[in-house]
Amino acid sequence: MKNGKLVVAQIGCGKFAECQDLPNISSLEEVALKWICDLDLERAKEMQKKFGAEKVTSDYKEICADPEVDLIKIATSHEIHLPVIECAAAAGKHIFCEKPMAMHDEEAWRIMKAVKKHGVKLCVDLNRRMSPALQALKKSVAAHLADPKHSPWRYIETLREPLPEEEYKHMIIRIQDESSSYGLQHVDPLIGGGEIIGESVHWLDVACWFFAPAVPVEITAWGSSRLSHGINLKFSNGDDMTLTFSCSGTFDYPKELFEVTAGNAFFRSEFFVENNTYGVPGAKSEYFPMKHYEGNIKEEGFNAYIAKYNERFNGDCGNAKEMENAKPFEVDKGHLNMWKAFIDAILNDKPSPCDELAGFQSTYLAQLAIRSIESRQTLPVPVERFFPAIFIR
Ligand SMILES: NC(=O)c1ccc[n+]([C@@H]2O[C@H](COP(=O)([O-])OP(=O)(O)OC[C@H]3O[C@@H](n4cnc5c(N)ncnc54)[C@H](O)[C@@H]3O)[C@@H](O)[C@H]2O)c1
């Protein structure tokens, strides 16, 4: 701590750091940015100039050796997480790591060991669980199931008990992505690991968080293990999540849609800006404001999002992603909430909002999904693998 603030270092200063981490750090009163680190020192200096860090380096070990640093944020490519985390944990630093926590389960075990051995806190940025829209979706489903209400005109059979399947909840997550705009590092087996490890960990985590305390018991995946794919994840109480991830879509239309059926009702969350409920009398639409919007459209919600997007991008030329990084224009996917919750966990010794076990479990499920695709098999999720025993020497 310095002057009552947590001292933070950013390791990896690519596109994500520029549009999320560094603006978020700058907005938080409880932290002070001391270091910026990137293998590309010129890039690190550019970000230092833009966000005002005290020091720059291209060697993360220099940061681990600085006794003043309390918290390290990692937003590098994926393959370097393990050595950076081992180094940071041994130096007693708390760690906020971008998803995926690891490339595979063995790396994830080693990360869990390092964190436990050195008694530091770790948070994985599986941020969707912290988005206001998905938190509201989860609350709406729980509130309905606790006190179900149906329109009087509905025919609901009251003379029989529900069949077991009628009690199950089903979640569908639709992702339409545009992989042609990505660099090949995302699908390089040694750096990115492909879209299941790199991206679908988000939605595997959302399902585990949404259906907890039920735990996944079975996984079936199909398609390509590096790009377009589908995953069905079944839970111990009969609930399930089905994900369809298509890489051949367009950034002109929102990427993520979440739908849940539960208790004879339907709940829909569209790209973090609008939630709607059907089959529950009196249920109202909920709207979630965009961050950093500076235009003239006052409305919120999905149609307003499309209008705001078109207002911004139609009039401009150039690469949309670069513009987004230069001046973020975005829905609230929970990144800042994750920062706030993790800082609170460090300052007040509370559990991490998304700890190393969640990081391990999402990595492990992603790895099982890849195995399921490659073997054309449905696979069990053994409880003893999902909750590993960590022995510290
Ligand atoms: N949570 C989310 O919603 C979300 C969204 C986008 C990206 N991400 C994650 O953020 C991370 C970075 O993504 P990006 O799009 O910014 O990638 P990027 O390629 O633009 O940036 C990565 C940066 O890390 C640097 N780097 C690599 N190895 C390093 C090392 N050993 N030391 C210091 N710097 C190193 C690279 O030079 C590069 O500048 C990835 O893990 C990605 O999965 C998360």
Written description of the protein model:
This protein has a 9-stranded mixed β-sheet with strand order 14-13-12-11-7-10-9-8-15. It has a 6-stranded parallel β-sheet with strand order 3-2-1-4-5-6, sandwiched between helices. Helix content is 36%, strand content 20%. The chain folds into 2 domains: 6-128, NAD(P)-binding Rossmann-like Domain (Rossmann fold); 129-288 and 331-347, 2-Layer Sandwich (Dihydrodipicolinate Reductase, domain 2), CATH 3.30.360.10. The chain starts with 5 loop residues before the first strand and ends in a 7-residue tail after the last helix. Helix 1 packs parallel to helix 9 (320-326) and helix 7 crosses helix 11 (356-375). By secondary structure, the protein is an alpha/beta fold. Strand 1 (6-11), helix 1 and strand 2 (31-37) form a beta-alpha-beta unit. It has 12 helices and 15 strands. It has helices spanning 15-27, 41-51, 60-64, 81-90, 105-118, 132-146, 195-211, 302-314, 320-326, 335-347, 356-375, 383-386; strands at 6-11, 31-37, 55-57, 71-74, 94-98, 122-125, 170-176, 216-223, 229-235, 240-246, 256-262, 265-270, 274-278, 286-287, 379-380. It is globular.
Number of domains: 2
CATH architecture call of the largest domain: 2-Layer Sandwich
CATH topology of the largest domain: Dihydrodipicolinate Reductase, domain 2
Distance from N terminus to C terminus (CA atoms, Å) equals 30 Å
Helix count?
12
User: Could you name the ranges where pLDDT drops below 50 across 5 or more consecutive residues?
Assistant: none
